[in-house]
Write a structure and sequence with these properties.
By secondary structure, the protein is α/β, with parallel strands linked by helices. The chain is 42% helix and 15% strand. The protein folds into two domains: 42-75 and 355-466, Aspartate Aminotransferase, domain 1 (Alpha-Beta Complex); 78-353, 3-Layer(aba) Sandwich (Aspartate Aminotransferase, domain 2), CATH 3.40.640. It has helices spanning 15-25, 33-39, 65-68, 77-89, 102-114, 128-145, 166-171, 175-178, 196-200, 207-225, 251-262, 283-287, 314-322, 337-352, 355-373, 410-420, 442-465; strands at residues 44-48, 51-54, 59-62, 119-125, 153-157, 188-191, 230-235, 265-269, 293-296, 308-313, 380-386, 389-394, 423-424, 426-428, 431-434. A seven-stranded mixed beta sheet has the order 4-10-9-8-7-5-6, with helices on both faces. The chain has a four-stranded mixed beta sheet with strand order 1-2-3-13. A four-stranded antiparallel beta sheet has the order 11-12-15-14, with helices on one face. α4 (77-89) runs antiparallel to α14 (337-352), α10 (207-225) packs parallel to α11 and α15 runs parallel beside α17 (442-465). It is globular and about 65 Å long. Bound molecules: 3-[O-phosphonopyridoxyl]--amino-benzoic acid.
């Protein structure tokens, strides 16, 4: 059982009372409301560095950085101070009617500095989903302004995650999401994902061979839709919510070549991969692409307050600015001064702590090395990382790479053991995934990998007992 590190705090009610109030009034995202109400939520009350505490006093190692966002770790005073100061001075003003606030201008300037050189402009939103809605409207506006309004279609990928608004969920390739609410919206189509285990391995391709094949599905789709109708391609450098699908090294350069050949815009959704996660400031730098637009959120403030946006590359910015006319799009909180002040403090702290270098030179390679040690475990068919994101593929028979049958939700069994042993790790089907805070140390990686191994052993014991092997 997890260590009872401290007595419950921040709670004037018992856990059961919080759970009852939660069940009575709070509809949680991506949740089966009825079954959660029966089970009761885990109430998280406090956090520091890479650890959380729940209302029962259990200490938990947060290997998911909240939800892929708390890159600088919990409890960073400079972010709290920045928010406090800004709230006292100017808690809100908008950017609509020819006005601007100082933190929004400063952040725009700093983002232009830390992003690749083609990005000199930013459009702010409140979240990644809103950022991707902005992408859809901006991409279509761009082609309209160029006199090619028939270029409407955006190509994305199955099992991609681009958010939960109508446009975000449509760009995403999650079939469960499309099944609710009549999605995708018109003009968004999907190709298969570059997942070697699903599409490459069964036909005997090496990873690099498969990367080229998977990229050329984009070309096939462009030709099917008609090159003159395609506006853009969008992808996450590494698919996050889809299960940390790290594409073969050959994939993204070939995608770039195809986008260039047909003149279509390349959009890199950096909501997870941005701000150091892959060991460079942005995932496109790790993958070797030169996107025209880049969505960001999460790590821009390390999740301390909500903020998102779109970095707009010179090719698009030039058209939007020089051709003129109003872009009829924006959010109340576009450039929210408190969120921008926190983002400034966050990026400055990342620089001060040299967090990107820390991931690239030290803990990223160390995690990769420690993850490889898990390959000797009977349940582990694959263990791969990219910077500080990692996935373990759970298999029934590792010599043949046979998956567990659908009837056995092995990921959820493993996740249950993680919960019970003070570790937060996500299960996506049969992939167990992590994305710990970038401030994690080597010693903490050892601690995390030991916990993972213990949970894998407990899962193996269940599999043996249940006759699933
Ligand atoms: N793009 C990507 C690549 C994301 O990962 C979004 C856009 C949407 O961002 P907002 O801020 O609107 O949530 C995301 C969000 C999961 C999980 O289960 C992942 C996300 C959100 C919720 C759950 O892994 N990513």
């Amino acid at each position: 059982m997890p260590v009872l590190d401290r007595t419950p705090m921040n709670t004037h009610r018992t856990t059961a009372e919080w759970q009852a109030a939660d069940a009575a009034h709070f509809l949680h995202p991506f949740t089966d409301f009825r079954s959660l109400a029966k089970k009761g939520s885990r109430i998280v009350t406090r956090a520091d560095n890479i650890y959380l505490w729940d209302s029962e006093g259990h200490k938990i190692l947060d290997a998911m950085s909240g939800l892929w966002c708390v890159n600088v770790g919990y409890g960073q005073k400079s972010l709290v101070d920045a928010a406090t100061r800004q709230m006292q001075e100017l808690p809100f003003y908008n950017a609509f009617f020819q006005t601007a606030t100082v933190p929004a201008i400063e952040l725009a300037e700093l983002l232009a500095e830390v992003t690749p050189p083609q990005f000199q402009h930013v459009f702010f939103s409140g979240s990644g989903s809103e950022g991707n809605d902005t992408v859809v409207r901006m991409v279509r506006r761009y082609w309209d302004l160029l006199g090619q309004p028939e270029r409407q279609v955006i190509i994305s990928r199955k099992n991609a995650y681009h958010g939960s608004t109508m446009a975000g969920a449509s760009l995403g390739g999650m079939s469960g999401m499309h099944a609710q609410g009549g999605l995708p919206i018109p003009g968004i189509v999907h190709i298969e994902q570059p997942y070697w285990w699903e599409h490459g391995r069964p036909s005997g391709m090496t990873r690099d061979e498969f990367g080229l094949v998977a990229a050329r599905w984009l070309e096939d789709k462009i030709l099917e839709v008609g090159a003159g109708k395609v506006a853009a391609f969008i992808g996450e450098p590494v698919q996050g919510a889809g299960g940390v699908i790290v594409p073969p090294a050959t994939y993204w350069p070939e995608i770039q070549r195809i986008c260039d050949q047909y003149g279509i815009l390349l959009v890199s959704d950096e909501v997870i991969c941005g701000f150091g996660r892959t060991g460079r400031w942005f995932g496109c730098e790790t993958m070797g692409t030169r996107p025209d637009l880049m969505t960001f959120a999460k790590g821009v403030t390390s999740g301390y307050v909500p903020l998102g946006g779109v970095m707009v590359g010179d090719r698009v910015a030039k058209v939007l600015i020089e051709r003129g006319g109003e872009f009829t799009h924006g959010y109340t909180y576009s450039g929210h001064p408190v969120a921008c002040a926190v983002a400034l403090a966050n990026i400055r702290l990342m620089r001060e702590l040299k967090l990107v270098e820390h991931v690239h030179d030290d803990v990223g390679p160390y995690l990769a090395q420690q993850y490889r040690t898990l390959l000797d475990h009977p349940l582990v068919g694959d263990a791969e990382t990219c910077g500080l994101m990692g996935a373990i593929l759970l298999v029934k028979d590792k010599t043949r790479g046979t998956p567990f049958p659908d009837a056995v939700d092995i990921g959820m069994v493993c996740r249950g053991h993680c919960f019970g042993n003070g570790l937060i790790m996500r299960a996506v089907g049969d992939r167990m995934i992590i994305a710990p805070p970038l401030v994690i140390t080597r010693a903490q990686i050892d601690e995390m990998v030991a916990l993972i191994r213990r949970c894998l052993d407990l899962t193996l014991a269940d599999a043996t007992r249940g006759g699933w092997l």
